[in-house]
Amino acid sequence: MRYWAGARAAAGVTEETLVTGPLVGDALDAAVAAHPELSDVMAVCSVLVDGRAVGRDAELREGVVVEVLPPFAGG
To answer: Which helix H or strand E contains 27, and what residues bound it?
Structure first.
């Protein structure tokens, strides 16, 4: 899992490997369990799997990259 911007600050790491259940929501829950500070940030983040936006119910395959992106300001 890769964390960007405010998610990275809340997690305290840039990326990590998580072993989770088969859904994106399982991975997100595992990340919050490992880094409780992510809870509020995760509620407003977009989630990408291998570069594609997905929801919590999307299935994960071994070796995919999950990215957590908070809203960005500016443009």
So the answer is: helix 24-34
Q: Is the pLDDT of residue 72 over 90?
A: no
Whole-number percent of the chain with pLDDT over 90: 87
Q: What is the pTM of this model?
A: 0.90
Distances (CA, A) of 20 to 6, 63, 74: 23, 12, 34
User: What are the boundaries of each domain within the chain?
Assistant: 2-69
Other Cβ atoms within 10 Å of 9 Cβ, number: 13
* 2-69 maps to CATH 3.10.20.30: yes
Q: What is the CA radius of gyration of the chain?
A: 11
Q: What is residue 31's predicted lDDT score, i.e. its pLDDT?
A: 96
Cα-Cα-Cα-Cα dihedral sign, residues 53, 54, 55, 60: negative
Pairing of strands 66-69, 46-49: antiparallel
